[in-house]
Amino acid sequence: MPTLWTLQLLFACSGDQAPQTEWLVDAVDLGEPLAGGTGFAFDTPQAAWLAAEHVVPGLTWSWPASNVPLFLWNDVLMGENVSDEGTCPYLTASGTAETWRSDCRSQDGYDWDGDYTVDEVEDGSWTTFAYDLGLIVDSDVEGRAFDRVSLKGPMVYVDGDDEPMVRSSQSNLVVEVAGYWSRGFEDALEDAWSRLAISGRWEGQAQDGSEQITLEAAVDLGSWGGFVATGSITVDDCLLEPAGQVSFVGAQTAVLTFQGDDACDGCAEVTVDGERQANACRGF
């Protein structure tokens, strides 16, 4: 087991460097990184945006590492046509921890196997949510919402007091989803989430009335491959994009620059191996 859970090995292998930031939340040991972070090709604007939306807060997800598994749990798995309230899964409590246990079949034909645990602890003005995910849900009934959803790994989210630490998360997760995005004709996401691995760290700090976010993460997106991302962005009044720059190292080195309020057009300037490319934009 590593003595300190970071992505230093991945950054060293990629040739990139982690952002120089004074982290306010201590690193926690979440085990060996589950994401390999290699091979992603930044050869189209669409590919560049696909990579960015899975790691950069303020694009598709306000906080990707936490939003992705919580979306699957709250919006997909806990829907009334997938789970049976109170029985499949059923809730148990031990101290500050709550665990949803399964090994059951819901009345609508979804087979549940495994547990979902969250431990909520208040420490002064911060609240820490520690997740331990080990759950598989699948179905073969007609009209099902998906074929299979799997959530595995640990995640820690810290809700700060807004001054100076706003929020922080550390994740080492693998999400596997089959037959969900394809039903909405989202083939790129269907492929990417066939095995979506996120191993990384994000922290938002209050600065001059805005939130300054530092990130360092390795991400694998199915057969698209993986990348290592490092950067610093600022969340301002623009709802379409943050401001700042994020570097990606996969099959090539890509740099995405977001303009925030200065443009607020939902696009990023892209360079790949030092060459300027077409802008990457939301809604590809």
Briefly, what is this?
This protein has 284 residues and is mostly beta strands.
What structural keywords apply?
single chain; 284 residues; mainly beta; 14-stranded antiparallel beta sheet; 4 helices; disordered N terminus
Detailed description of the structure:
The chain has 284 residues and is mainly beta. It has one domain. Helix content is 13%, strand content 45%. It contains four helices and 14 strands. The chain has helices spanning 8-14, 45-53, 64-77, 187-192; strands spanning 90-94, 97-101, 104-105, 110-123, 126-139, 148-159, 165-178, 196-207, 210-221, 226-235, 243-249, 253-259, 267-272, 275-281. Strands 1, 2, 3, 4, 5, 6, 7, 8, 9, 10, 11, 12, 13 and 14 form a 14-stranded antiparallel beta sheet that branches. A hairpin with a 2-residue loop joins β1 (90-94) and β2 (97-101). It is globular. The N and C termini lie far apart (40 Å).
